[in-house]
Specification:
signal; alpha+beta; about 30% helix; globular; five-stranded antiparallel β-sheet; about 20% strand; transport; single chain; eight-stranded mixed β-sheet
Length: about 725
Amino acid sequence: MQRSAWQWGWIGIALSLLLSLSGCGENPWNSPYRSGDAAAPVLYSSFSERPKHLDPARSYSSNEYVFIAQIYEPPLQYHFLKRPYQLIALTADGMPQVSYLDAAGRELSPDTPAEQIAFSLYTVRIQPGIRYQPHPLFATDESGAYRYHQLSEAQLEQIHTLDDFAERGSRELTAADYIYQIKRLAFSRFHSPIAGTMGEYIVGFNALTKRLREEEQRLKQETGQDRPYLDLREFEMAGLKQLDRYTYTIRIKGKYPQLLYWMAMPFFAPMPWEADRFYAQPGLWQRNIKLDWYPVGTGPFMLAENNPNLRMVLARNPNFHGERYPNEGEPEDRAAGLLEDAGRSLPLVERAVYSLEKETIPYWNKFLQGYYDTSGISSDSFDQAVQFSDQGDVGLTDAMREKGIQLTTAVQSSTYYFGFNMRDSVVGGDSERARLLRRAIAIAADYEEFISIFANGRGVPAQGPIPQGIYGHRPGVAGHNPYVYEVRDGKIRRRPIEQAKALMAQAGYPGGRDPQTGKPLVLNYDAVATGPDDKARMNWWRKQFAKLGIQLVVRSSDYNRFQEKMRKGTAQMFSWGWNADYPDPENFLFLLYGPNAKVKGEGENAANYENPEFDRLFNKMKNMDNGPERLAIIDLMVELLRREGPWLWGYHPKAFSLHHAWYHNVKPNLMANNTLKYKRLEPARRVESQRAWNPPVLWPVITGLLILLISLMPAVVVFRRRERSAAR
């Protein structure tokens, strides 16, 4: 049967569509990226929570540090590979020099006891020749004056984003920029979350805070502006001094070695005075052109696109001063391929694209398709990715291994704990009765089971307040908590529930009965449990207390109400957690320091634990250098806490992350946030995998085209009949 011209025409159209769909383009059909992007040294990742602050004086959130830690450079950083964590110079020309002074300013010997030191002086020298990223705030005219520091109304009408500025400039980093940023920490306008801590140590910090607040109020009345510009260069802080163009000093009260850790955080990154002057212009603020949105730094990357409703893009800073991949690490790093890039110039990628992903399933599917280079593991996808052996060892499923996906795990420098309000008349206090009750509950609360059920096995039962990787943590059998665990066959085992019941009887609660009422002892657990997923967790806690005959009443509320209860000390028992700011035991032990009590001191001691001996040891330990003497004191403190039991020590979470075979230099660093510069990609391998994992599926298209053709045929037949009729 011969086909008519119109039939051949429709067939031709269908074939053309199929050929175009199955053409040999570089990207698979379902690729979310432009053609050619996957073949470039561009890292693809995601974010789920919109960054709120990109100003290093204000930011204190991990989702914000993903970006600003690549842009801003404090004087120090953590070595990428070495463990325990080791501070090294970043922009500094070597580690800061520390000297100790008495009250008269005379220098003391390095081995002077901490209680005899009136001041510590940190001298920081930065490397010459470091320059800021290109930015309009540095642009100058022919006379050297800044182009955009006094914008007219006519100029502002043409400005909507930072890209609307035609000119950009740069300048050299100086010591004055570091001093300026520390002054910004003291300026209450910026609401720096570490202002309180720094006010305790940096000389003149609080005095400057007061002075700036007074001056700001005066200018508000004088100008009528909500945010009048203050040039912080005109205000002095007694503890800061610039010695020359590249050298500055910080004077602090007493001895506080932890200051070095703070100097590796973005809080202490430099800030050019020009940034505050440029962004202070009211017209820019109204257009959301501000430092919180458009950061400016000296780091390896700069923020090329800020669209938190879609994506964030970091691009290589063309003015980056250069840095080399480390030449040494731990013994196993070379075998793991982590030293293959030793000595190479950083960064190793050109860009990093972070796409907004609010839902875990689409995010997970894109990772499996090869469109994200690395991924966490949500509870929904855990069983698909990870399996446990009979011995409890963790590994990848066959499906993951077939794709060449690799798993990295690390115990985080964090702790999740169950706390007792030590002000409570039943579970609190230092009586033997209360101690035995807390100890019985600690044995009954099976955190091994909790980790298995609610954390997908991603955690390690805590033996005390100090997690792995932090100085003072005792690993293995030597570090077990003897009040809750015992060693059997060389392994740490939770004590049997019979021992917990015996402790209940010793405490005066045989069978969990309150001797005064003869009824089961009733205890209250205040929790943030407002979602449907919390019901199983609350039921689990009820079962743990029921083992001892205790009736647990869960009092759930939202987080704001929960915080209010904690501040007032009305909660009887609660759950909370803490992430390390820096790798020092002081950062965990201060959570149980008496003066930090939540009720009395508005601090982070949520259990309101007060013990004079513990506080005495804490004050002696906190400013000591690491060594045998400090370790011995830490051991005494941990032993005291285990015996008193103000917490069920809970567990230290374990981070699981996945990455594809083309993504290199992966080693968890739980302290460093600026590790993007070390990552390396094999883009050609990525493209090859994406094509293999995303083959075109033609049958739905072919079926759709056939249905379309069949549905159109009657209409075309009628049309042709009318044409023939008209022709007659």
